[in-house]
Amino acid sequence: MELNLANSTSPEMLKLHFVHHLNRVYFGKKYLQEHVPNLIGISSLRKLQLAIHETWEDICNQVKRLQEIYVLIDEQPANENCVPIIAVFKDAFEPQDYGADTNLINDVDIILYLQLLEHINLTSYRLLKVLAAALNYKEAEQLLLESFDEAIDNDKLFAMIADEYVRR
Length: 168
Hints:
Shape: elongated
Order of helices and strands: HHHHHHH
Largest sheet: none
Radius of gyration: 18 Å
Helix content: over 70%
Distance between the termini: 57 Å
């Protein structure tokens, strides 16, 4: 089977892919914007609570940037059927009964899954940056870079908290 790559990198196809992935990230971020604050109440470590709040603030900024990108490229958000961020969040943070004295397990689970979500974000922003560059969306590329950098910082923050928390 021979692939026809001539149409796959046309500006129209690249934009279609860009918008598709932008939608997935946007609706995932909107979901997180609504649900991440709930994690503060189930975490026991003050540093973790502060990190979750900081992450939530970053999510709010990222949603604003994504909205700016839609304006820049003259598109509207369109909900996608499959949003990996929502699936992971729902699976990870459904109430679980670990028994008595479960603070460590709960907190480590929160850290683990928030880092997993950041890795999904890193991959998504990386792909969107590549597509934005190919489409010559310079301003969008810069906005994506800012969100990418925040995701890296959040990942490092949760790794540091996990290390400190487990070793204490």
